[in-house]
Amino acid sequence: GQNIDQPTEMTATEGAIVQINCTYQTSGFNGLFWYQQHAGEAPTFLSYNVLDGLEEKGRFSSFLSRSKGYSYLLLKELQMKDSASYLCAVREGYGGATNKLIFGTGTLLAVQP
Amino acid sequence: EAQVTQNPRYLITVTGKKLTVTCSQNMNHEYMSWYRQDPGLGLRQIYYSMNVEVTDKGDVPEGYKVSRKEKRNFPLILESPSPNQTSLYFCASRAPGEVLEQYFGPGTRLTVT
Fold it and tell me: Mind telling me how many Å the CA of A42 is from chain B's nearest CA?
């Protein structure tokens, strides 16, 4: 079966660091995505991992361990505007033109002053 | 400006009254898809299309139809809407490429009474 787990809610303080975890079990693996979604808006792309390791992009970093079925999104120097839902999504399949993205239910992050 | 557009953005309708939600992209993307987003369930894929005249079911296709007569347009059709189709709908598109990033439309909030 396919399953993606992430915490439902998290709270953090402005200026701090927060780590949002995601574990997955899917039929094949062809990449993991993180999206940010503000309330009532469309998801926007944050990061993509297909190989093990850390990908850094400014204040945001994403880590992947394929053997553990595990990823995390690290947000540094938190700002109030980072309050949003963070969606973990796995692309199923084994390469080629596979297109199916399986989304987790999202982690609602609240950044407090 | 590269974008995915959806219309209408908001719609309140009654059970059984056929409706169409349009989706259009100006990026010449081959792949397009429709998702619905419900609280606690995350984003679930309804239908997707790999190219013109090529469509396939996602995870929750029941009660929906799609067509892909032109590359830029991918309308979602509800022949006989029911209250359980009340949801937030997103259209997305992407081009072949290493990152496989999807671009989402702004969303359509549909209420069926």
Answer: 5
Contacts of B31 in chain A (CB under 8 A): 99
* pLDDT tens digits for range B2-38: 799 999 999 999 999 999 999 999 999 989 999 999 9
DSSP string, B11-24: EEE-TT--EEEEEE
Task: Kindly report, residue by residue over A67-97, the tens digit of the pLDDT.
Answer: 999 999 999 999 999 999 999 999 887 655 5
The alpha carbon of residue B80 is apart from the nearest alpha carbon of chain A, in Å, by 26
- A88: Cβ–Cβ under 8 A, 6 or more apart, which residues? A4, A6, A20, A22, A24, A32, A33, A34, A71, A73, A103, A104, A106, A107
> Which chain B residues touch A if contact means CB-CB below 8 Å?
31, 33, 35, 40-45, 48, 50, 58, 90, 96, 99-107
What pLDDT digit, counting tens, does each position of A23-75 carry?
999 878 888 999 999 998 999 999 999 999 999 999 999 999 999 999 999 99
Nearest CA of chain B to the CA of A57: how many Å? 14
